[in-house]
Design a protein that fits this description.
The complex is a heterodimer of chains A (433) and B (143). Chain A is of the alpha/beta class and 433 residues long. In chain A, 32% of the residues lie in helices and 24% in strands. In chain A, α7 packs across α8. Chain A is globular, with a radius of gyration of 23 Å. The model of chain A has no long low-confidence stretch (mean pLDDT 94). Chain B has five helices and six strands, in the order βαββαβαββαα. Classes of the chains: A alpha/beta (433), B alpha+beta (143). The complex binds zinc ion. Zinc ion binds next to loops of chain A.
Chain lengths: 433, 143
C-alpha cells in the first residue's frame, strides 16, 4: 500500500538516523533546560546534554519508569503548562496510583499522523468505514484510533465497547470495512454474530481489523483471519507513548515504529545494556517529538526484539516483533534470563504435551535448577514407558534450546496444573535468597 | 478367530506420589468394576498403571471423568503350566517368530497363573502360541 508520508516513511536509513540524532539532541537540551525532573535525573547520572555526540550516546541517558509517572502524579513531570494542553488521558493501572498523560495540540497531531501512516500501510483510506470498538474516554484506545482513521479519510463509527448485537447490526447496515478493538472482543463479536445467524465472513463487508491492547499470538491471528475472513493487524502502544501508536503493514512482518517519532532500544532487563537487533529484551522507547509529557528511554516492560532491515513494503523504519511477555515475569536462572512466555511458546510447538505448565525453580547447593511440569496430551499418551520418556526428553531438549538453560521436565496428570494466567501460580520459586 | 483372544487392558497415567494407586482402585471399586490384574511401571517421576478389569469401557469412562489420562491397549493372557519352564517356553515361541515382548506381568487366576503380554504383533503372537499348544485367556473372560 502506498505510504501516507512517502518522504518520511521511505527515508534512507542513514538519513533517518541523522534526523533521529538531531531530534534527540534538541530533546535532551530542552529537557535539561526546562524539565526539572529529568534534569535532576541526568545530574544524578552525571550526564550532560553535551555528552550526546552521536545517536548511540542515547545509551548514556538515564531510563524512565512507570513509577516515575506515578510518583509525579498528576502532572509534576509535564513539560507544558496546563493552558498549552488540549487533552488529558488517565490510565487506571492495575497496581497503585493512576497515571495522567497530557497532550499539546502537536502531540495529538503526531499521534494521528503516526496512526495514519500505520492504517494506510494496511490499505485503510477514503471509502472505508472503521468501527472503533475500543473504549472511549479516559482510555486512549477509542479516541486514538478514531483520530487516526479520520486522518486517512475513513468514515468512523465510534461504537466503543459493549452492546455487541447492536454493533453487529451497525456493522452490516453501514457496511463497515475495518474494525479496531481487542482481539478477544473481536472473537466475542464473531461468536455473538453466529448466535444471531450472521457470518462475519459472508454477511458483512469487514475486511481488516487492528487488534491490540492485550497480548495475542500468531495462532490467534490465523484463527481470526480464517474464521472471520479478514486480515488481522497488530497495533501497539501504551498511554505513556500517547496511546495505540504503531501497526503492522500488509506484510505482517512486525510493527513499524516511525523513527522520526520514536527511538527504539531493546535492553537487557537485568543490566539495562542495549542489545543488538534480533535479540529479545525489554522494549525501551524515547519519544523524540512529544511535548507535554516527554518520555526518554522509557522502560515499557514489554519483551520483544527489533528488526532494522527495511520491510518488503518499502518502508525503512525499524520494526518490532510480537510482544513475548512482561519483564515483571522474568526469572534469572544460573545468570540467564528466562521468561515464562518462552516456555509457553516452546510448548505450543510440541503437540505431545498440553499448553499448560508450571515452572518450579529451586537451588541445589550453589546451582539453580529449573523444573517444568507439563501434561501429556490425550493423543500422545502411550502405555509404554519408553515412549513417554521420549516425549519427556523431547520437551527437555526443546526447552533447553530455546531458553539456553538445562531444564528437567516432569510429566504430570491432566488437570493438575494451574489453568489461569498469572505468575503467582505458573512459577514457584523455592530459592531462599 | 485370533480376535477373541485379544484382551482390552486399560492403561492409566499416574504421577509417582502417594495415594494415586489407591485413588484409581477406589474409583473403580465405587463404580462396581472388578480388577483381575494390575501392574505398575515406573519411570522418572511418573508411572503407568495397567489393569485388566471386567468392564473396560466403563472403567475408561469413569477414570477419564475423574481427570485421569486413560488408554486401551491390546494384550494377550497366556495360561502358565504348573511345571518348570513355562515362561521360557512362551519366550522362545515368540522369540523364534521374531515377535517382541514390550512388557509382561503375571497374576494368579482361579485356575492357575496367567502371564499378560504386550507384544508388537498381537495376532501373530496368538497364532504362534496356539499353534505350539499354548493356552490363551479368552477376551470374554475378562470383559
Ligand atoms: Zn512494511
Amino acid at each position: 500500500m502506498p505510504p501516507w508520508n512517502p518522504r518520511t516513511e521511505e527515508m534512507p536509513l542513514g538519513e533517518l538516523r541523522r534526523l533521529q540524532f538531531k531530534l534527540l539532541k534538541s530533546l535532551v537540551y530542552r529537557l535539561y533546560s526546562f524539565n526539572e525532573f529529568y534534569r535532576l535525573r541526568m545530574k544524578e547520572h552525571q550526564v550532560h546534554p553535551d555528552d550526546i555526540r552521536m545517536l548511540e550516546d542515547a545509551a548514556k541517558l538515564p531510563f524512565m519508569y512507570k513509577g516515575d509517572l506515578r510518583d509525579g502524579y498528576p502532572d509534576r513531570i509535564f513539560s507544558a503548562e496546563q493552558n498549552e494542553l488540549v487533552r488529558y488521558h488517565v490510565s487506571s493501572g492495575t497496581t497503585g496510583k493512576p497515571t495522567v498523560v497530557g497532550y499539546t495540540e502537536r502531540d495529538i497531531e503526531n499521534w494521528s499522523e503516526s496512526l495514519a501512516r500505520g492504517f494506510s500501510s494496511c490499505g485503510l483510506g477514503r471509502g472505508d468505514v472503521m468501527q472503533v470498538s475500543y473504549g472511549y474516554g479516559l482510555f486512549t484506545g477509542g479516541l486514538g484510533a478514531h483520530y487516526g482513521a479520520e486522518r486517512v479519510g475513513a468514515t468512523v463509527l465510534p461504537t466503543s465497547v459493549g452492546n455487541t448485537e447492536r454493533q453487529i447490526e451497525l456493522m452490516q447496515d453501514l457496511h463497515v470495512t475495518a474494525i479496531a478493538c481487542t482481539p478477544s472482543y473481536l472473537l466475542h463479536i464473531g461468536e455473538v454474530a453466529e448466535k444471531m445467524g450472521v457470518s462475519i465472513k459472508n454477511d458483512t463487508d469487514l475486511r481488516m481489523g487492528f487488534l491490540g491492547a492485550e497480548p495475542w499470538s500468531e495462532q490467534m491471528r490465523t484463527r481470526i483471519e480464517d474464521w472471520l475472513g479478514i486480515r488481522a493487524y497488530d497495533i501497539y502502544g501504551t498511554s505513556e507513548l500517547s496511546g495505540p501508536m504503531f501497526t503492522e503493514c500488509t506484510e505482517q512482518q512486525g510493527i513499524h515504529i516511525w523513527g522520526d517519532l520514536a527511538l527504539v532500544e531493546i535492553v537487557d532487563p537485568a543490566t539495562g545494556e542495549v542489545l543488538a537487533p534480533g535479540e529479545q529484551g525489554e522494549l525501551t522507547i524515547t519519544m523524540l517529538q512529544k511535548e507535554a509529557l516527554p518520555m526518554v528511554r522509557y522502560r515499557i516492560g514489554d519483551l520483544t526484539a527489533v528488526e532494522e532491515g527495511g520491510c518488503a513494503c518499502g518502508r525503512t523504519h525499524p520494526r518490532i516483533g510480537r510482544i513475548r511477555g512482561r519483564v515483571d515475569d522474568m526469572l534469572i536462572i544460573r545468570g540467564i534470563n528466562v521468561f515464562p512466555s518462552q516456555v509457553e511458546h516452546a510448548l505450543l510447538e510440541i503437540p505431545q504435551v498440553g499448553r499448560h505448565f508450571q515452572i518450579v525453580v529451586d537451588r541445589k547447593g550453589a546451582l539453580d535448577s529449573m523444573l517444568v511440569r507439563v501434561e501429556v496430551s490425550e493423543e500422545a499418551f502411550s502405555d509404554k514407558i519408553t515412549e513417554l520418556m521420549v516425549i519427556k526428553r523431547a520437551v527437555e531438549h526443546r526447552l533447553r534450546s530455546s531458553l539456553n538453560v538445562s531444564v528437567d521436565v516432569e510429566l504430570v496428570e491432566p488437570g493438575t496444573l494451574p489453568r489461569f494466567e498469572g505468575k503467582s501460580k505458573k512459577v514457584v520459586d523455592r530459592r531462599s535468597l | 478367530m485370533e480376535k477373541s483372544y485379544i484382551v482390552k487392558q486399560i492403561s492409566i497415567f499416574s504421577e509417582n506420589r502417594p495415594g494415586r494407586l489407591a485413588a484409581i482402585a477406589g474409583a473403580l471399586r465405587d463404580a462396581g468394576i472388578n480388577i483381575f490384574a494390575f501392574s505398575i511401571a515406573e519411570a522418572d517421576g511418573f508411572g503407568v498403571v495397567r489393569a485388566l478389569v471386567d468392564q473396560p469401557d466403563e472403567a475408561h469412562r469413569t477414570l477419564t471423568d475423574l481427570g485421569f489420562r486413560v488408554s486401551f491397549t491390546d494384550v494377550i493372557g497366556v495360561k502358565m503350566r504348573d511345571e518348570p519352564g513355562g515362561l521360557s517356553d512362551i519366550a522362545s515361541i515368540l522369540g523364534d517368530a521374531g515377535i517382541n515382548i514390550e512388557y509382561a506381568y503375571a497374576y494368579s487366576g482361579r485356575d492357575g497363573a496367567v502371564l499378560i503380554l504386550r507384544v508388537d504383533q498381537v495376532e501373530d503372537a496368538i497364532r504362534q502360541i496356539l499353534g505350539r499348544g499354548g493356552e490363551l485367556l479368552k477376551a470374554s473372560l475378562s470383559g
